[in-house]
Design brief:
- By secondary structure, this protein is an alpha+beta fold.
- 16% of the residues lie in helices and 50% in strands.
- The chain contains three helices and 16 strands.
- A hairpin with a 2-residue loop joins β3 and β4.
Length: 364
């Protein structure tokens, strides 16, 4: 165990030094090289594959056999390797100490996620499912487990727990710590000394419009709705204190999220699906924010739109292109240091493009 932690810290130390070199040398080539390398892996493996006709025939025979003797219990592991490319536009950079003059900033990195799914079909109507995910990444480590019940695979109710931590890269990028208003900065915590934890309650509804529309290659449409209530806390923060851990940023308390996704399955060999997600999220009034954050308007509701396009690179590699548009807080001061944001005064809201993402992934 000690060797694994030492190896992970060694790898991330090398990565962050490489990342800092990108920032100060203003070199975009690593971003393109990484994405091209992901494509090269995908196409390189495609050339070794069996012809698609024989694969389709074998898979259809296998599916028929599985349907005839499908067990009530199914359990399987998935591990997914991905190349993730991210482009941050100027608006997301304007409060950065080093990147505030850049029109955009691209970077890329590999990730590997592990999951185990256990599914038990009680009968034709009810299914029990348990999913456990382990997500190591450049923003930290996370472990999630959720138990859910499905009714005809249309209505789903679930409850799950999560434990996570984050890496501390020092002054370059603070991924964990508690915010101190008097210093207008985060008190950084050391990796594996503090943790986030929480529980999530979730409900989902799937509406297969394709069952009601005329049968066609152009009418395969599905709508999914969801509602989430989640309690999150940080072991290094007292109630009311703002904290950051990995991609999470908030206080000890409940937050909610309501959303929906329109899924449009396309009749193309390579580009097979388009999606549009919409959501509204925010903290519940029961969450405790210190009075120093009142001007920040901590209970502000964030609206988001996420158009996505799914495509097939090869038989083993898939891709996704996604953009995030969100209605966020607009502050009295236009320019400020990013660490000062929790103390800014909100005077309104604005829609803007936050990030563009490109992902190449393969399941093993």
């Amino acid at each position: 165990m000690f060797f694994c932690q030492f190896f992970l810290l060694f790898v991330w130390k090398i990565f962050i030094r490489f990342y800092i070199c990108i920032v100060y040398l203003k070199v975009f080539r690593p971003f393109l090289v990484t994405l091209l390398l992901g494509l090269a892996f995908a196409y390189g493996e495609e050339s070794k594959e069996v012809p698609s006709d024989s694969l389709a025939a074998d898979s259809s025979k296998t599916e028929v056999q599985e349907q005839k003797s499908a067990p009530a219990f199914k359990g399987y592991f998935d591990n997914t390797f991905s190349w993730v490319g991210i482009v941050l536009p100027h608006h997301s950079l304007r409060n950065s100490e080093t990147l505030h003059n850049w029109p955009f900033f691209p970077f890329a990195f590999p990730t590997w996620a592990f999951s185990y799914t256990a599914q038990y079909d009680v009968n034709k109507l009810i299914t029990l499912k348990e999913v456990t995910n382990l997500d190591p990444g450049i923003f930290g480590l996370g472990l999630k487990s959720e138990l859910s019940v499905e009714l005809m695979h249309l209505l789903e109710l679930g409850i799950g727990g999560v434990v996570g931590t984050a890496f501390n890269y020092g002054e370059t990028a603070t991924m964990m710590g508690v915010y101190k208003p008097e210093k207008r900065d985060y008190r950084q915590d050391i990796f594996m000394t503090e943790f986030t934890y929480g529980v999530k309650y979730r409900a989902g509804l799937t509406i297969p419009l394709l069952a009601f529309l005329p049968k066609s290659d152009w009418t395969k449409i599905i709508i999914k709705g969801s509602a989430e209530l989640e309690y999150n806390a940080y072991t290094g923060a007292d109630d009311g204190e703002l904290w950051k851990s990995g991609m999470s940023d908030g206080v000890n308390g409940y937050k909610h999220k309501f959303g929906g996704t329109l899924i449009y399955m396309l009749p193309f060999e390579r580009v097979n699906m388009a999606m549009l997600g919409a959501s509204v999220s925010g903290f519940n009034k029961s969450a405790e924010f210190d009075s120093v954050y009142n001007d920040y308007d901590p209970y502000f509701k964030t609206y988001a739109l996420n158009p996505m396009l799914m495509f097939k690179v090869s038989e083993k590699w898939n891709g996704m292109a996604m953009a995030n548009f969100a209605r966020l807080r607009k502050y009295e001061r236009y320019k400020y240091e990013s660490t000062e944001e929790p103390l800014q005064k909100r005077i309104g809201s604005e829609w803007r493009l936050n990030v563009v993402m490109l992902v190449f992934s393969r399941k093993f």
